[in-house]
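#onboarding

Welcome to the new folks! Below is a worked example of what a typical request in this channel looks like: someone posts a single protein sequence, and someone else replies with the predicted structure as tokens. Don't worry about understanding the tokens yet, we'll cover that in week two.

Example request:
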Amino acid sequence: MRTTTVHLLHAGYVRAGGRVGGSVTLVRDGHVLIVADPGMVAARSAILDPLAALGVAPEAVTHVFLSHHHPDHTVNIALFPNAEVVDFWARYKDDLWLDHDGDGYALSPRTRLWLTPGHTEEDASLIIEADDATYALTHLWWKGDRTPIVDPLAWDQGAIERGRARIVTAVDVVIPGHGAPFRVGGQGAAALPAPYDMERPRR
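Example response:
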């Protein structure tokens, strides 16, 4: 039986003094291991230690998913030397630049890439049908309290609103670009425990 789980490795933030951390997430879908948005963190151990606690070596990660190309979501891609990198446009492995199917592309049997431009023209979201809920990993929202409502860096705020409307009707849990998860009114939301507690590694 396939097991699909979502583990928040690092909850992102935006703080005074120019400190910015991205939300970094591990998705297990059977034998597929996806790290989403391995970007800026205070130290690489903020990514590697939670991975180790879950029994995952960096070399075992099969895919890196990028929601967009800002450095706070990309600068630690090289921690995962064997991973295929997937963005809104294509797949990248060693010196190979490979096409994918665009909106709806399956990185694994229970994960899909959705094109969700707005924060940038190139944004994508990762939708995961996990065992406990359906998740969206996305920069359509910045923080767990859903602020700021208007994205201060938006390429197209109208596109953000359309993407948000699509997401909230399809998923149960959103992991935003710089914050803790929050629940939305997706079809499976009623089955979630309250208060919701994501599966996270014990320190």
